[in-house]
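Marked as duplicate of an earlier ticket. Keeping the data here for the record.
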Amino acid sequence: MTETWRYCGNQIKLWRTGAGISREELGKEANYEYETVKSMEQGRRKPSVRLLQVADQMCGAKGEVTGGAGVLEAGAVSGAREGVHGH
C-alpha cells in the first residue's frame, strides 16, 4: 500500500512544484501542517482526499491530482484482498 501512497504523494509534489506552490502554502489551504504534507508527499502517510482536492485546485491540474483518490481506494481494496489470501 505504501507504493500507492508514494505514487499519489509524488503526483502532489510534481504538480505543486510545477505550479510554484510551497508545502506551507498547500498545507495552509488544506489545513495541514508542513510536516503532514511532507509525510504525504513522501508516501509515509496516506494522502487525504482533502489534500488531493486542494492540490488539484491550487495547481490547476483539472482532476489529474484528484484522480489519485481512486488509486488510493483501489490500493486499499487490493491490499485487503491480499491480506485475506495471505499473499
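See parent ticket for discussion. The chain is about 70% helix and 0% strand.
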